[in-house]
Amino acid sequence: MLQVINPYNQEIFAEMAYDDNVSVATKIKAARTALPMWRRMPLAERMSYIKEGLAYFHQNKGAMAQEISCQMGKPLYESLNEFNGFFERAEYLLKIAPQALAPDILPPKAGFVRRIQHEPLGVVLDIAAWNYPLLIAVNVVIPALLAGNTVLLKHSARTPLCGVHFEKAFGHLSEGLVTHVVASHEQTLNLIQDRRVDHVVFTGSVKGGRQVYQAAAGGLIDAGLELGGKDPAYVAADADLDFTVPNVVEGACYNAGQSCCAIERVYVHQSLYDRFVDQARGVMAQYVMGDPLDGQTTLGPLADPNALDFLEQQVTEACRQGAQIVVGGKRLGGTRGNFFQPTLLKNVPNDAQVMQEESFGPVLPVCAVASDQEALAMMNQTRFGLTASVWTPDQDRAEWFARELLAGTIYQNRCDYLDPALPWTGVNASGIGSSLSKYGFYHLTRRKSIHFRTKV
Would you state the CATH architecture of domain 2-228+426-453? Predict the structure, then answer.
């Protein structure tokens, strides 16, 4: 039996039975059975059905937001805000689907018809993470359905009720269209290797991504992997600190720092360093930790209780190397919740673990740099490459960093935001493939070449 533990009070919030091998096989069969009808349906009709499914989320927004907060701990206002991104992405993907999925027509050639069609892959297995349980799933479910695929959704064990809602929203349109699977780790790896599954998308840790990729290789299927990051920010000498500091702090602490594209290390030009640290201290002191359902709470508990030990270890190790704690640095005492204090560290060496390994918590390590060139070198000293942000009013400076930074998304004066018109992709250990934009459709389809000789 899967138990979902509320990270605020440690009480059992929900229980769900795991699928056994028979029920998993039944769900795969249903997905394959639904596939021929769905892939042959005209795109306009698929779009109409999907809009019906989205109506379910509008109708149940309030109750679902409370469930999200109780399952993984984010404050209620953040759970409600997640719906804004959910609908923005879904509606944009619906808007561009006709163009993104239209055949590529090649230049005319006498006596021939040539085009490239974008065909559905088949049954797509989406292994979704808990930190943004709606956004991560919508990135795959909507474009996969629009492209003519059916979806098996294996949602995180921390947020399985979200998987149930996706099935309720879209599964009723046709049995097997979207099916939620409650599976163990071993069952999930077996599911990836099932020959009736045609593609897998995974969002999670690097370790988990390797396991998924190895399992997918056994069946010679492709995989999309979004594996997180250690995303840097650079505060240039001309940055507006009154604008930059609150945005950078929010980029580190929103969702308690449990975001793959959270700001996890900051390089500040030495001319602004002391002022940045002082202002950041003030912003971080304003966070209110408490019940996620309380409207006054602005920082919720961490979803994983083991994260408390890991973050304390990162802070301790950094201090041994010369870093200093400005504020925070440890778990919150006197509570059952998995709370870690908003933490600001200064004078952090770039080789410290807290600068190199994903923290996934409200920890902001800061380092002074003497120049743009030094900042660039330190920002690129990482095995990750999801996003990077440059805080400057100078677009030429931002463009220079954009050319040189090894990351999938480069921001100027913003962070921790996904524009659905832009592909979400990573470099190195941050993943493989793309979601969102037209390229997200391309990753969930295969190319079919049409080459007809019409005159013989």
Answer: 3-Layer(aba) Sandwich (3.40)
